Amino acid sequence: SGSSSGGGGGGEEAKGMKGGGRFASNVASNPYQDSGMKEMDVEQLIRRRAIHILRCAIDAEYDKMKKFKGPRNRVYQDCMERISVWKKYTLCFEALEMEVEAHLVDQVWSTVAELCLECAKEDAVAKEKTDGAEEQLVNDTEFQLILLPKLTWDWVGALFARVLLSDSPTLRKLGLFRLFLGSAGISVATEQKKMSNNDGALSIDDNKDATRDTISKKKKKTKVIGKAKPVGAPPSILSTQFMLFCLIQSFDSLVNVGTGVNFDVDGKTDNYDLAQMFPSFITTYTRSLFKDEIKLQTFIEGMISERFVTCTRARTLVMVFDAVIEAWTHQENRKVDIRVCCIEEGVGALQHIFERGSVVLDFRQSLTLNVSKLLAHSTLPKSDNLKPTLILKALALFPAPDEVCEPTEFQIESEHYLALWLNSFGENWVVDMGSALASSFISGDLLPYSNGAESSLVSPSALERQMGSSIAKLCALCSTKNSDSPSALLWPAINKGLSYSASMGEQSFPLPYKKAQKVARSIILLEFGCKERILSGFGHGDLVMDKSGNMMPPAPGVELLVSRALNFTLEQLKLVSICNYDESNIVSDVCGGRSTKSAEFANHFGILINQLTVFKNSYPSSAVLATYLTRYLRYTLGNILEMERLANPEKSTMATSVKMIKNMATVYGVLSLGADFGDDSILEEQKVEPDYVMDLCSFILTLKFSSISTEEYPIATWQVKGMTSLFEHSRWGALMYLIPMAYKEKMDSSVMQYEFHNQMMHVAINSVNACPVNALPVLFEAVCSSARETLERCTESASIKPHSHIKDVGRIIEALFVIIKDTSRSSTRSYMLNVTCSLIFSPKLMKAEFDSLQQIKNSGGKLNLKVDAPILSAFRKMVDDAGVSKPHILKYILSYSVIGWLGDDTEKEKMGLAAIPYRQDIVKLLIHKGEKVEKTAAHQEGLVKSYDGGNFATVPEGVPQSSIVRGFLMVFLSKLPDANLMNKDVLTKLCHYLIFLLLDNICVPVERSGKALLTTGSTEYVQKIRAWQSMCMLYRFVTPDIATDVLKKVFTSMDQLLHGQIRYWIEIFTIQVARTNPDVFLTIFLGEITRCDVSQQHMSSLMIIGGNLLAGRYSDSFLKSIVGNKSLILKKIIAGTVPWLGSTQGFCRAVAQLLVHKLIPLAKTTDIPSQDASFLETIYTFLDSNPEMTRLRNKQSAFFNSYDVDFSCTPEGMFSFALDDGEESNPPHLAEVLKQALVEIYDISKSNDSPEWKQLLNEMNALDLEKTNISDHSISANHEETLVNFQRKILPMDTLNLTLQDHKQSTLRNVAGRTRQSLIVCASLIDKVTNLAGLTRTAEIFAAEKIIVPDAKVQKMDNFKSISVGAEEWVDIEECRESDLLSWLKARKDEGYSIIGVEQTSSSQCLSTVQFEQKSVLLLGKEKEGIPVQYLQMVDKCVEIPQLGIIRSLNVHVSGAISIWEYTKQQMAKRK
C-alpha cells in the first residue's frame, strides 16, 4: 500500500522492509509497495489485520457450506474448491508474512504454483467468455457465495511482492530465482530450464485447455509427499505494473549487492547467477504478450515512461531493453502501438539521465540502439498525429561524432533502424520534411532567434546546435531514391543563410544580428552535415576522385559556401578571443551572467576551433584552403612580429592588447585549417629560412598578454581574465601545430633545439595556471611534440652520457604531470596519462636510466631518486595515485613498462635489465588486487581519445579486472629468456630476488594463530594464492644453486593448513622445479615422505607431486633424469609410500596404491631380503588383480595424464581457470577430483549389491508417488494441514492489538515481534566462519540482544551466509577484535552485565545448576584452546556442560547453543 521514494538511473539503493520494500521509486500507483519507514509498523499491522479478516470471511463461507443440505452438485464442488483456494492463499500469506529464513520461505512455492494455475484458469475462463461456475452461482438464489471473488493476479502478485520487496537480499534472491527457474508457478522458456540445470522444472503447455486442466506428473526429489507439480501458468498473467515496479525493481536492488545465488534444485545445491536468468525471463514474458496487443502496448509504454527510466539503474535498464528487443527475434514484422506522448516522455527521460552523466558510454549506446530498434518495431495509433519535433527530439539521442570519421558499428546499426522507423511514415514525407525543417531552422520559424545588438558576437545556444545536429541526421537518414544525394536537402538552406557572409579575401562588413544568426545556423548545418558524411568527401558526399585516385576539389558553388563559412568563423573567433570587447564601450551579454562569462567564452572558442577542424578534414582538396591560408598565416604572423617590435615595454595600450590576441587567435584558426609553411606552391622568394619556424616558436613562447587596468579602460574584470585565458589557449594551440613543423626542418645546430626545448618546458610549467581548462589539451600536445623529439635525441646519444640526459627526462615528466594534475575532465586526463606512459616508459629511456643508475653506483655517488631516476619516481607516483580503485591507470603504466623492461628481444642478454630497479615494485604488484570498479563516467574507454603511439603489451583474454595488473607482469615474466640465456644480473638480482622475496614474506609465513584455514577472500588468502601463482611463472629461474633452499621453504609451506586452491599452485610449482632439478628434489622428497608427523593434507600434496612425477604424464622423462642408484631411490620411495596404503584418508590411500603398483616392478628386488620381496610381490599382485583397484587406478592414471603443468605455468593457462566469487583462481584440486572418483567407484561397486526385490520395491514406491492426484477435492477444505505442503505459520494474536509500540520500545523487539533478551553472545575468540555463522543463527532464533564477532566482514562471506541462512540481517552483529576484548568486557561489567564463561575449570559450575542473571554476557572460548587465562580473570562465573561420553569436548557452536537455550529456558520460567 502507499508509495515510496527511491533513487533513479544509477542512484543509491533504497532500503525496503519485510513484506514490502522500497525499490521502485516514487510511483504513487504501485500497489506492491509500502510507504515511508515511519509507517512500517502501522502498515504491517493493517496487513495482518486484513489477512485475519479474510480468514474470518473464509471460515464463515465454509460454515455456511457445511449447513447446506442440498445436492452436492457441480455448483457445490466449485464453491468448495474456491474456499480451498482462498484458504491456501491465506496460509501462504501468513507464512510469507512471518518467515525470515530462506529455507522456510522456500517451502511455499509449490502451493503458490497452484494459486498461479488457479489464477490462469480463471483468466482463461474470462477470456473465452464461457458460462462458468461463477455465472451459475449468481443466478442461483440459494447460494450467495459471491462474497469470495475469483482469484486474480492482483491477489497472487501481492504474495510475490512479500518476498520480492523484502528487506532481506537473500529472500529477494530466492523469490526471483524460483520465478526465473519456473518453480514458482510461472512457465519459463525451455532455454531457461537448460541454463538452470533444473531437470525437474515445471512443464510448459501454451494450450488454453492444458493450462486449465492438465496436470504434469513428475517424480519429485523433495521431502514433500503426496503432491505433484502443477503446470505453470503462462507469464502473460503477470500484470505490467508487477513486472515494471516489483519484479524488475527487486532485481535492480540486487545489482550492487550481487546477483549470485546458491540454492537447492531437486536436491542438488549449485551456484547460479540471476543476471543470466533475468533477461530470458523478460524475453519470455514479452513474447507471451504478443497475443494481447493492448497489454503489450501498456508494458512497452511503461518501460519507456519517465517513472520507470528514472528509478531504475542504467545497468538494469540495458538488460531490460536488450531482453525486450530479443523477443522480436524472428518476429520482425510484428508491430506495437506507442503513443506520441509516450515516445516524447521516454526520449526526455533518457536524455535526462544521459545529461546527468551517470550512464556510461557503452550503456548509453546500448540503450539508444535498443530505442532505435523499438521505434522500428512500433507504429503510431491511428488517433495520433506525427509531430516533426518528435522526430528531432528522438534523433537528439544519437549525436554526431566530434570529428569527421568513418562510422562505427553502433552508428551503422542505429541509423539502419532509425531509417526503417522514418520510412514507415512514407519516403516522400520524410524527404520533404528534412528539406522543410532545414529551411525553417535557418529562417527562425522552427526555433525563434534571440534579440541582440548590431555587430555583436553570435553565440548559438546548446538547443540550436542540438536541433541542427538532428536535422542533419534526419537528412542523412532520408532515402535517396527520389533525390540525387541527401546533401541536396541541406545545401539550399545553407546557401540561403551563408549568402549574407563575405567569402575569404573579400572585405567583411558588420552584419545585423538576425542575419549573423542565420549565417551561424547555416554553419551549424554545414558542420553537422560534414560530421554525418553527407556534405563532405566521406560517405555519400559530393567530392569525387580523379583517375589517379586523388580527391578532386569541390564544385565552385560548394567552394564559395565553404569560403564564406570559414571567413565568418574566423571573424567570430576574433570576437570571442577578446570576449566581445567593443572600444565604443558596448559590452554584450549574449553569453549569460557575469559569473560564468569567462568559461562560456572559452567553451565557444573551442566550438569554433572544432568547426574549423571539421571543415579542414571534410574538404582536404579545397582550392580556397590551398591558396589563401598560407598567405593569411604569413600576414597574421607578420602583424604579431611587427606589433612586438613597436611595442612599448613600459606601457601597453588597450588597442595593442586587443590586436595581439585577435592575431594570435587567427593564427591558431588558420593552422587548424591546415595552413603550412612548406607548401610547394609558394614562390622561391617566399620560402622560409631553415631556422625560421623554430625561431618563430621561440618568439611565441616569449609573448605575454599585457595586463590591462579596468580603471583606465572601460572593460570588465571578467573580460580581462577571459582574454588572458584565451590568449594562452591561442598561443599553445598555435604552438601545437608549429612545433612539429619546426622539428621537420633540417638544422645544423642541435644546441638551438636543446635551448628551445628547455625554454618550452619552463614556459609550459608556468603557463598551466593561466590556461583555461579546455586549453590544457593543446598545451599538453605542444609539450608532447617537443618532448618526443627531445627524448629521441636523448636515447640516440644516451650510450655516451646517459646520466646527463636523464635530467632532461625529469623536466619533461614534471611538465606533463603539472598539466595532468590541473586537467579536470577524467577522460582527457586518462588520455594524457596514456600518452605520458608511452613517452617515458620506452625501452631506450628505461635502459638509459638503468645505465645512469649503474654509473652513479659504480662511482660511489649518492643516489637521489627524484633527480637520478625520474622514470622510476614517476612509475611509483602513478602506481600510488592509482591505488586499488583506478585500474585504468595501472593498465596504462604496465602496458608500456613491460615493453620497456624487456627491451629489444633480439638482445636476449639485455632483456630484463631495466626491470632490476623496479623489483620491489614488481613484488607488490604481483599480489596487488584492484577493487571491482563499476563502470563510471570517470574513465570510460569509449570516451577516452584513442592513442596508438608506442609499443605496448597486452594480456590474455579472460583476465579479470581485479587481476589486470599481475596479468601484465605474468606476460613480462613469461617473455624473459630461460636462465641459461639470461644476463647474470637479471637472473640473480631480479628473478632470484623475486623468488626469495615472495617465499620469505608471503608464501611461507603464517600470520594467523593456530591451524585454522584462511578466510576465503581475505587479504592473506588473496596474497598467498597470487604469490604462489607468481612462483609458478618463476620456476624457470630456480637454478641448482638455489634449488635446495627454495624446495625446503616450499615443503615447509606445504605443512600449513591451506585451501585446495592455494595448494594446487604449490604443487604445480614443486612439480616444475622437480623436473628441472630432479636430484635436489628427490633428496628432500625422500625425507618428507618418510616423516611420521606429517599431516594428511601435507601427505596429499606429496602424493599428488609423486603421482605426477612417478606415475603421470611426466614419469618417463623424470625417471630417466634420475642420476645415481635409481633402484635404491625407488625403494626408499616405496618404503615411504607403503604405510599410507592403510591411511584413513581415502585420497592418500588411493594414490599410494597407484605409486606402489607403478614402482615395485621398476625397483630391483634381487638385493631385497626375501621376506620383504615376498611382501612387496603380494601387495603388487593384489593391486594388479583386484577389479576395484584396477578401476580406481585407471581413473587415477587418466587424471594424472591430463595434469598439464606446463600450460598452467603460462599466462594463458593461469587465467583459464574458473574464478570464485572474489575473482580468484579456482582450479579443480586433484585431491577433490579423486575423492569424487572414489565415491563414484564405490557407487558403481555397490549399485548391484541390493537384492532384486529391494530394487523393485524402490521403483514401485516411485510410481506410487507419481500417481498422487493434486486435485482430490474430497479432502476437507477446513483441514489446513492437507491443503499445503509446508509448515503453517500462525500470526501471533499480539500483532492484532489496537495499540502500536513507539520507536524506542520497538527496538527492544526482533522482527518476529518478540522481546529481545538481554543476552550478549561474545564470540570474539572464535576463528572459524562456520561456527560464527551457526552461533549467529542460534542467537537470532533465541532473540539475543547481539552477537560479538572478531571481524564484521565475516557476514559477507558465502560460507557464512549458507549456514546463517540470513540470520545476520535480523540480529545485531558487533565487531570486537581479540586485542580489544579485555576493555570490551570491562565496559559491559560497568553496564551491569554478568560475564559467564563457557569453560572447564576447577571452579566451573554445572550448566543445569547455575542461575543466569537477566543481563548476561556469554563468553565463548577458542575452538581448541578454550578461554585464555587473561580473559578468565574478567569472568564472574564459569559453566561447563555435563557430559556422559568419552570425548571430553563439544564443538564451540554446540556449546554456545546449549548455553543460550539454558539461559532462555530460565528467563521463560521467570516470566511465567
Helix amount, in percent? Answer: 55-70%
Oligomeric form: single chain
Q: How many extended strands?
A: 11
Counted by DSSP, the helix tally is: 60
Intertermini distance: 39 Å
Rg of Cα set:
40 Å
Q: Going across the biggest sheet, name each strand in turn.
A: 7-6-5-10-8-11-9
Biggest sheet details:
7 strands, parallel
Low-confidence stretches: 1-40, 130-144, 190-230, 584-595, 679-688, 1247-1257, 1262-1277, 1293-1307
List the helices and strands and how they pair.
Blueprint: H1 40-67, H2 74-98, H3 102-105, H4 109-128, H5 133-139, H6 153-164, H7 169-181, H8 190-196, H9 208-213, H10 240-252, E1 260-265, E2 268-273, H11 274-288, H12 293-303, H13 306-311, H14 314-326, E3 336-337, H15 340-355, H16 361-376, E4 378-379, H17 388-395, H18 409-423, H19 427-443, H20 462-477, H21 491-498, H22 513-531, H23 556-577, H24 594-618, H25 623-646, H26 654-672, H27 692-702, H28 717-744, H29 750-767, H30 776-797, H31 802-822, H32 826-840, H33 843-859, H34 865-868, H35 870-882, H36 887-902, H37 919-926, H38 964-975, H39 984-1003, H40 1019-1034, H41 1040-1054, H42 1060-1076, H43 1078-1089, H44 1096-1111, H45 1115-1121, H46 1126-1137, H47 1146-1159, H48 1170-1185, H49 1187-1201, H50 1205-1208, H51 1211-1214, H52 1230-1247, H53 1252-1266, H54 1280-1283, H55 1303-1306, E5 1319-1322, H56 1329-1341, E6 1346-1349, H57 1358-1364, E7 1373-1375, H58 1381-1390, E8 1394-1398, E9 1405-1406, E10 1416-1420, H59 1429-1432, E11 1437-1440, H60 1452-1471
Parallel strand pairs: 3-4, 5-6, 5-10, 6-7, 8-10, 8-11, 9-11
Antiparallel strand pairs: 1-2
Helix pairs in contact: 1-2, 2-4, 2-6, 7-11, 8-11, 11-14, 14-16, 16-18, 17-20, 19-20, 19-21, 19-22, 20-22, 21-22, 22-24, 23-24, 23-26, 24-26, 24-28, 25-26, 26-28, 27-28, 27-29, 28-30, 29-30, 29-31, 30-31, 30-32, 31-32, 31-33, 32-36, 33-36, 35-36, 36-38, 37-39, 39-40, 39-41, 40-42, 41-42, 41-43, ...
